[in-house]
Amino acid sequence: MKKYVILFLATIFALPAFANSVPEELGEFRDWTAYAYKEGKNLVCYMASTPKKDEGNYKTRGDIYAIVTHRPADKSYNVVNFVAGYPYRKGESVVVKIGTISFNNLFTSGESAWAPDNATDKKLVEAMKRGEKMIVEGVSARGTKTKDTYSLAGFSGAYKAISAKCK
User: Which tens digits make up the pLDDT trace of 14-49?
Assistant: First the structure.
């Protein structure tokens, strides 16, 4: 998984500053891997995982990830991003379920889904720390419903690693 996550994130963060900074792996923590890199002079830390199971009636689908990012220079922490591997349908929200908790209001842009505000990001991260699995449900631009199931094993360890590096 590590190589794919690094390559994928290299395309997300494809900035001139990133070209000079290769992500440093902070560690693998069961189903999550933690990384850090320099964006210009600023440190960025993130953790990522791929789903254990992806469901939907589709023929092809790109890479699928869940990512949590800290950008201390911007005072930005706990930013949760889901990448679907397809463009989401415009105006369609993404639903995330962790145990008995549901987050029904994630907005989409292209292949990514984001929490609407910092408070929701923080609640998502807290639920991910306590949960065992996470289900992400979305709808593609073509109307295909998908359901991705992530393991949260190792989430807390990876989170501690990025939080220690990016204070």
Answer: 444 444 579 999 999 999 999 999 999 999 999 999
What's the order of all strands across the beta sheet hosting 24-29? 24-29, 32-39, 42-49, 65-71, 76-83, 112-114, 101-109, 94-98, 133-139, 145-151, 53-56
| pLDDT reading at 11 higher than 60 | no
Fold topology of 2-165: Immunoglobulin-like (2.60.40)
Domain boundaries, given as residue ranges, for the chain: 2-165
Helix axes 118-130, 155-165, angle to 10 degrees: 130
Cβ distance 30 to 132 under 8 Å? no
User: Quick one: tokens of 127?
Assistant: 């639920």
| Beta bridge pairs of residue 20 | none
CA–CA distance, 98 with 149 (Å, rounded to integer): 10
Q: In the chain, what is the straight-line distance between the N-terminal and C-terminal CA atoms, in Å?
A: 26
HSE-CB at 162 with a 13 A cutoff on CA atoms is: 30
CA-to-CA distance for 75 and 140, rounded, in angstroms?
32
